Amino acid sequence: MDGKNAIVTGGARGIGYAIAKRFLIDGARVVVADVDEKAGEAACEELSALGDVRFVAADVAERLDVRNLVANALDAFGDIDVLVNNAGTSHKADFLELKETDFDRVMGVNLKGVFLCGQSVARHMVDKIEKGGDPGCIINISSINAVVGIPDQVAYTASKGGVVQLTRVMALALAQYGIRVNAIGPGSIMTDMLKAVVTDREARERVLSRTPLGRIGEPEEIAGIAAFLASKDAGYVTGQTVYADGGRLPLNYTVPPNDN
């Protein structure tokens, strides 16, 4: 990725942070976007030893924030070659009790945000191509919950299913320009959110019982997939969702958890 310029939304922590770090290690310049300004600034300070990284505060569900994000990235680096739509949120509530405002907030960040950022960056990429430049690529972060459901994560599950379909449509619409669009569907990954869950032995065993590989994934493993999808090695891959779930989706039953 030497000389490439990337935007990673939701890059202050977790999977987004790991992707930004991997891109920097691979030679890219990175704009980290996040709604949490304090965490975003701290992340950039940590990552700055690896390469050229900037932070832009942005709520991806807000059109003006997205426009400002893209403008800042172009001002900083002059181009955008890779967009990673990683920003996401969730809200736990029973289907019968879920409030419309909470549903809208999750859908706004997880699905509308992918659309707004994807459209804005794709417009720049198309303009660049029409001027003789090289096509870029877009990577959307979905989830295995695009396929399987969680009863008290109604909006999250619906939004991630939407991301998979949006990825396919974006890929078809942008194929004529050579712009590739793919998604990654992580399973149980050791982010701060999951760490809070698996400190409980019963919860950890429940997670492992549905994971044939017998362990929880690491953010760096998702970053490795993103690095591949952003590379020339994935030059003929578009419209796909790569599920990294330790074998969970093919599993028909549960497996005995490994205490180790």
Automatic annotation (TrEMBL):
Residues 4-187 form the Ketoreductase domain. SUPFAM superfamilies: NAD(P)-binding Rossmann-fold domains. GO terms for molecular function: oxidoreductase activity. Pfam families: adh_short_C2. Gene3D superfamilies: NAD(P)-binding Rossmann-like Domain. InterPro entries: KR_dom (IPR057326), NAD(P)-bd_dom_sf (IPR036291), Sc_DH/Rdtase_CS (IPR020904), SDR_fam (IPR002347). Keywords: NAD, Oxidoreductase. NCBIfam families: PRK07231.1. Belongs to the short-chain dehydrogenases/reductases (SDR) family. This is SDR family NAD(P)-dependent oxidoreductase.
